[in-house]
């Protein structure tokens, strides 16, 4: 049985998309051995165009762009779709409704792993859109019964700024790692038993040693779940 073809919607940012590609291929090689690698297609956006739509609140146009990307992957032979970003799961339901392929939602493998660890109260770091809107927190609460804490307003602004001014530009600053460590500590003080790295670039900055509680890296968990789907039946 051949691997299923993974359709990756990336470029938001390319730094995290490169991590998806690396993790997916390393995981396939580890599981299948030898020279094996993943069968995948990648549609990569110009993130400057997407970021402008995000900041202007032009979500309908962003949704249309993601739907078109998913349809391109479907026409190209993808057998399921992965959106390589947390924030753009804001339109995941609309994308799923517009295509004939399954969409592997980033929140699901993350929540499943958290529940398997016996954790119920989690802190969430991500863009302001992910932390403040309900499309992500609501799914974690409604489908998985998780109690989701987000940082206070000043801390949310700091987390968002580092993502857009540094991480998506390829900058990893020690001062920002210290700032994130302090923000994580404050979430733990409020009762967080674990922290979700709910932006696919945060894993470039934050490491397990930066947190007194377990970290759940959505990039790695999503990529590994994509391999599970691609290799199902092997």
- In round numbers, the mean pLDDT is 95
What is the tally of helical segments? 10
List unreliable stretches of 5+ residues: none
Which percent range describes the beta-strand content?
5-15%
CATH class of the largest domain: Alpha Beta
Output the structural class: alpha/beta
CATH architecture of the largest domain: 3-Layer(aba) Sandwich
Rg from alpha-carbon coordinates:
17 Å
| First-residue to last-residue Cα separation | 6 Å
Apparent shape:
globular
Q: Give the helix proportion (percent range).
A: 40-55%
CATH fold descriptor of the largest domain: Rossmann fold
How many discrete domains?
Answer: 2
Total count of strands:
7
Order of strands across the biggest sheet? 5-4-6-7
Order of helices and strands: EHEHHEHHEHHEHHEEH
Task: Give the biggest beta sheet.
Answer: 4 strands, parallel
Pfam family, one: Asp_Glu_race
Keywords: Isomerase
Protein name: Aspartate/glutamate racemase family protein
GO molecular function: amino-acid racemase activity
